[in-house]
Amino acid sequence: MSGTQANNLTNPAVSASGQVSNLLIERFTGIVHEQMMRKEQIVSHFMVQDVVGTNQVTNKSIGETEIQVLVAGQESESKGTELDNHSLVVDTVILARNTIALLHMIQSDIQVQNKIATNHVKKLVQLQDETLLTNIMKGARVADGRVAGHYGGNSVDLLANGDEADPIKYLRAVESLVLQMNEKEIDNEEMIFSCPWAQFYVLMDNDKLMNGDYVPNGTGANGSTVSGFVVKAYNFPIVPTNRIRQIPTVAGTHHQLSNAGNGYRYDTSDAIKHCVGILFGTDALLVGRTMGIDSDMYFNKRLKTNFIDSWFSFGAIADRYEYCGAIFAHADFNPSQISEANNPLIME
Predict the structure, then answer these.
(1) Burial of 213 by CB count in 10 Å (0-12 exposed, 13-18 middle, 19+ buried)?
(2) How far apart are the C-alpha atoms of 343 and 281, rounded to whole Å?
(3) Which residues is 193 bridged to in the sheet?
(4) Degrees (nearest 5) of the Cα angle 131, 132, 133?
(5) Within the chain, where are the H helices?
(6) Residue 237 CB-half CA count within 13 A
(7) Whole-angstrom distance, CA of residue 62 vs CA of residue 219
(8) Are 111 and 92 in contact (CB under 8 A)?
(9) In what order do the strands lie in the sheet with 275-280?
(10) Of 45, 91, 317, 333, whose Cβ has the fewest other Cβ atoms within 10 Å?
(11) Which of 50-59, 97-106, 307-316 is predicted most confidently?
């Protein structure tokens, strides 16, 4: 028999009907690979107000009082003090939902359904963290405070493309941001610095980081201690993140929480694109929450379908602008594709 003669192979994995591999028995390993995502919980650094029984929470601002010299024999003049309030309206519920048909629900492994719910929560936390950081960036671009004695935000614009990757120039930008806040009576112990992972390693190259323990601002004096990186010279924590949106929202679309009533506050505008560092304190934002993140798996008898839902309702707005700081790369900066892919879905 010639060695070149064709042989007709028998494949036990293919049935006569032609369906590929339907004759093999699957062995489920118990491992479900979900989307790679960290629950960073930037919100832990802020005091979150419960918005229940109303859709609005308000902070009030008191301006500085003018002092005067007492003149003998003359009645002192009463000076006025400016007052203002700042409100946040929570008006949107964010929902993640998957449905599994009755047949597929019976055939699938329950671990898959649990993993779907877990992934929902991670995605909602990502949206929450991105929303908070976006509002800090917007506060950093505000020029003036609401009342006398309150100040505007703090920002540094890098002069050339590539400065964000230079250990010396990037650290100088951080120092400039810290100085701006120090001059507005904000102590280093009140600050937290968050930056993309690329800039985190830029700081590492400058040998200015060290491991340390700190208490997240939003948890108060009795909060839990967190281990992380701090800048040696300034003693505030460094939080590397993938949650800084560096690409502006596409024209004609909007962030899920944006609407005409809030002035599309959650969109990423051209003024805050290319952010490569954020410095903030607890008072930077007014954060409100009507419903915390929750999940449910239930069966709808009418539709004969299993629903996997996760939802929450919250909002945030820049409050004390002087507690908001941001570093922005040059206009020629090209954000990474990973950063672009991590942007939340947008709506028409």
Answers:
(1) exposed
(2) 24
(3) 238, 279
(4) 95
(5) 102-107, 110-140, 167-182, 197-205, 337-341
(6) 18
(7) 25
(8) no
(9) 154-157, 324-328, 275-280, 192-196, 237-241, 226-231, 209-214
(10) 91
(11) 307-316
3 state DSSP class of 236? coil
**How many residues does this entry show for the chain?**
348
CA distance 128 to 126: 5
Query: 207 to each of 172, 179, 238, 251, how far by Cα in Å?
Result: 14, 20, 13, 41
Name the residue type at position 24: L
- Whether the per-residue pLDDT at 222 is higher than 90: the answer is no
Distance CA 134, CA 57 (A): 20
Instruction: Render pLDDT for 102-130 as a digit per residue (tens, 0 to 9).
Output: 655 555 555 666 778 778 888 888 888 99
Q: Is the pTM of this model over 0.90?
A: no
Q: What number of other Cβ atoms are within 10 A of residue 318's Cβ?
A: 23
- Do 106 and 307 touch, CB atoms closer than 8 A? no
- DSSP symbols for 117-163: HHHHHHHHHHHHHHHHHHHHHHHHT--B-SSTT-B--EEEE-SSTTG
Between the alpha carbon of residue 246 and those of residues 138, 143, 176, 232, the distances in Å are 13, 21, 21, 28
Helix pair angle (197-205, 167-182), 10° resolution: 100
Radius of gyration over alpha carbons of the chain, in Å?
27
pLDDT digits (tens, 9 = 90+) for 22-36: 554 454 444 445 554
Q: Could you tell me how far CA 117 lies from the centroid of its own chain?
A: 20
Reported as a single tens digit per residue, the pLDDT across 266-280 is: 999 999 999 999 999
Distance CA 296, CA 75 (A): 68
Task: Reply yes or no on whether the pLDDT at 165 is more than 80.
Answer: yes
Smallest CA-to-CA distance from 220 within 81, 48, 8 is with: 48
**Strand ranges (E), the chain:** 48-50, 56-62, 83-89, 94-101, 154-157, 192-196, 209-214, 226-231, 237-241, 254-255, 275-280, 285-300, 305-318, 324-328, 346-347
Amino acid at 94: I
